[in-house]
Design a protein that fits this description.
Elements lengths: L9 H8 L3 E3 L8 E3 L5 H17 L1 H12 L4 H37 L1
Antiparallel strand pairs: 1-2
Helix pairs in contact: 1-4, 2-3, 2-4, 3-4
Length: about 110
């Protein structure tokens, strides 16, 4: 279980989830690959979300098509989508953390 206040930034959460970038650029090319460390179950869940959204969600289909037009491969587009999903999940955690502290402050004021 991932607690909301556990990570200092979105990048730290991405590294934990295994969706942060690692430079993999031989020579003049500028390529990255996914980090293979981190929580593998969380990474697998994000991979499943990515595949389902690529199949069903029209906004995601547009995003992937745009990335392919930009010159990225299908795998690169999927990697970018995983990072976008990671950002969305981290924002949900931040909101939950803020709401939790707001509830604690309300209880303190009520006492």
């Amino acid at each position: 279980m991932v607690s909301p206040g556990r990570f200092r930034s979105e990048a730290a959460f991405a590294s934990f989830a295994g969706v942060s970038l690692i430079p993999a650029s031989p020579g003049l090319t500028n390529r990255h690959r996914l980090n293979r460390s981190g929580d593998r179950q969380l990474n697998w869940a994000m991979h499943t979300i990515t595949l389902i959204r690529m199949r069903i969600d029209p906004t995601t289909k547009t995003y992937v098509a745009r990335k392919i037009v930009e010159g990225k491969t299908s795998r690169d587009a999927q990697r970018c989508l995983k990072r976008v999903i990671c950002r969305q999940i981290f924002k949900i955690f931040e909101r939950a953390d803020r709401n939790r502290f707001a509830n604690v402050e309300e209880l303190a004021q009520a006492a």
